[in-house]
Amino acid sequence: MRYMDSNLNRKAVVIGAGIAGIASAIRLRAMGFDTVVFEKNPYPGGKLSELRREGFRFDRGPSLFTLPELVTGLFGLFGEDWRDHFSYQRLDNVCRYFFQDGKVLNAWSDPERFAAEAYAVTGEPSGHILRYLAAAERLYNLTSEVFIFSPFLKPAMLFRPEYLKVLVNLHRLDAFTSLHDRNMGSFIKNEMVCIFDRFATYNGSDPYRAPATLKMISHLEHNTGAFFPEGGMYRITGALYELAVRQGVSFRFNNQVCQVVTDSRGRATGVNAQDGFEPAGVVVSDADTGAIYGALLPEKLLKRPVRTGDLSSSAMIFYWAIGRRFPELDVHNILFSGDYRKEFRYLFSNGMIFDDPTIYIFVSSRQVPGDAPEGAENWFVMVNAPVDSGQDWTLMRERVRETVIRKINRFLATDIKSHIMFEDHLDPRGIMAQTSSLQGALYGLSSNGRLAAFRRHPNKRRRIPGLYFAGGSVHPGGGIPLCLSSAQIVASEIQEDLR
Ligand SMILES: Cc1cc2nc3c(=O)[nH]c(=O)nc-3n(C[C@H](O)[C@H](O)[C@H](O)COP(=O)(O)OP(=O)(O)OC[C@H]3O[C@@H](n4cnc5c(N)ncnc54)[C@H](O)[C@@H]3O)c2cc1C
Questions:
Q1: Which residue's CA lies nearest to atom 14 of ligand 1?
Q2: Which residues on neighbouring strands pair with residue 423, listed in sequence order?
Q3: Of 49, 297, 435, 443, best ligand 1 pocket probe by most atoms within 8 Å of the beta carbon
Q4: Ligand 1 environment, Cβ below 6 A
Q5: What backbone phi and psi angles, to 5 degrees, belong to 438?
Q6: Do 150 and 206 share a domain, yes or no?
Q7: What is the pLDDT of residues 365-424, one digit of tens each?
Q8: Domain annotation covers residue 367
Q9: Cβ(268)–Cβ(261) below 8 Å
Q10: Is residue 128 part of a domain?
């Protein structure tokens, strides 16, 4: 690396052991770097962590797993066979949807079966769904290489064939219509509009504002598939952490980085952590950029203020140990709001949770029997929440808990309170405290607006050579696959700088 002090040039520091931080460390190690990861928590994984209590195990954050090859591919960097360390299954039923009028619809991973069931339950012609999913696939194939798997907006790349293909097909990106409007034009039944609008929430966005380009997310779930790791979502963290350790990456837990140290020309030369200065020729930050610009970078380097309105949504989650089984639920379940538009207005305009929120219930013990004792279930009950801007979360949690309980009782004809053996919870303030995410946003910036993708922080900045950015708050965005892609992009940027 041209600009580095020679004794530092094979030393790398990663700030944060979120999934992108671990993946970056693995890639750096595979490139021959002596790699150290600093993590302020006592455990790896950041948002992708778990909770164990009284015989129950809960995945704390992500529950939906797509593009598993981005995980398994990391083992191949060292010639290891991923099957020796990690396994996963394709889900037959991607999600079970419950509607206010009592309709229940299984979104089968097989598109033909899903379309047939959708017709039987809602009356939506199957052809509409199959045509939509085919269009989503075309859009994904056209854009993913550019928007997801490449560094963004690099002039040198504009002449690569995949960029040229996007440029000549700009009109096909569907960026000038909102996802909701596209779905209104594609389906005749409100249930299907809601199901396909919901994909905007996969990166914390509002379907009434986000571009219809996001419809490509439905391709991932319905065409390429939704998966589930054996042992639960936390196995993704566990397997990658173990791989990193096996290959010689060192982790320093309970060790917060308080400053990225730069030399007189602004080059990153290491970090100041709780246990002192750690020199490095390469520093990769997996910390939320909102946090790193606020605290870790020297004053003189550019500050990038992020507006609350640009951030993705957050979440309010109840982890319930349920003392009986509910066969009417699958692994992923959605109880829709009666007024989806109003729910998003509350989230993104009023900074509140709507009185009739859409409820997501994730029961991993359906797939991993050991996650709950015999005859019991582990419920992860989540509603979308606004980011933290000083709301009274204790009050809001009490109110939302009662609303959620009432709604579950109505949808499942039960008295759910009487089955809760114990509970834990997480709100935007807690997410912020646990992972340093700006205002508790789940996915960094939202995609609300046509130009949102262009506002994401790049994976490196020329003003700060030697410092690279991975994770959900930078390009290409939040969610496990995109975070893993950011690590891949960071590695390719470092490789390029080494030449
Ligand atoms: C409730 C919830 C549900 C979600 N659902 C899904 C889903 O179903 N599917 C999906 O794909 N994605 C989902 N996501 C999003 C996904 O979890 C994230 O996009 C992804 O895990 C973020 O990974 P990351 O590498 O950016 O880092 P994070 O997980 O944000 O971790 C960053 C790490 O850096 C550490 N850190 C920060 N600053 C410092 C510092 N100064 N010094 C040392 N350490 C520091 C933090 O402690 C943390 O461990 C969900 C997220 C949440 C919270």
A1: 62
A2: 320
A3: 435
A4: 15-21, 38-41, 46-48, 61-64, 256-257, 286-287, 291, 296, 315, 317, 431, 435-437, 442-443, 471-472, 478-480, 483
A5: -55, 120
A6: yes
A7: 999 999 999 999 999 999 999 999 999 999 999 999 999 999 999 999 999 999 999 999
A8: no
A9: yes
A10: yes
Cis, bond preceding 465 (omega within 30 deg of 0)? no
Q: Give the integer Cα–Cα distance in Å for 72 and 99.
A: 36
Mean pLDDT of 155-159: 74
Question: Which residue has the CA at smallest separation from atom 47 of ligand 1?
Answer: 435
Picking from 166, 162, 164, 192, the residue whose alpha carbon sits closest to that of residue 179 is 192
Task: Kindly tell me if the per-residue pLDDT of 294 is higher than 80.
Answer: no
Smallest CA separation from ligand 1 atom 6, residue? 62
- Nearest residue by C-alpha to atom 22 in ligand 1: 472
- Confidence category of residue 5, pLDDT binned at 50, 70, 90: low
E-state strands within 196-331: 227-229, 250-252, 257-262, 268-273, 276-279, 282-285, 314-322
Q: Which two tokens stand for residue 117?
A: 């069931």
How many whole angstroms from 472 Cα to the centroid of ligand 1? 7
pLDDT at 450: 75
Distance in Å, CA 32 to ligand 1 centroid: 26
| Cα separation, 1 vs 496, whole angstroms | 9
For 264, the domain range is 6-49+67-88+231-304+457-498
Q: Which amino acid is present at 492?
A: S
Q: If you measure from the C-alpha of residue 63 to the centroid of ligand 1, how many angstroms do you get, rounded to a whole number? A: 13
Which run of H or of E encompasses 239? helix 234-246
Residue 79, domain member (yes or no): yes
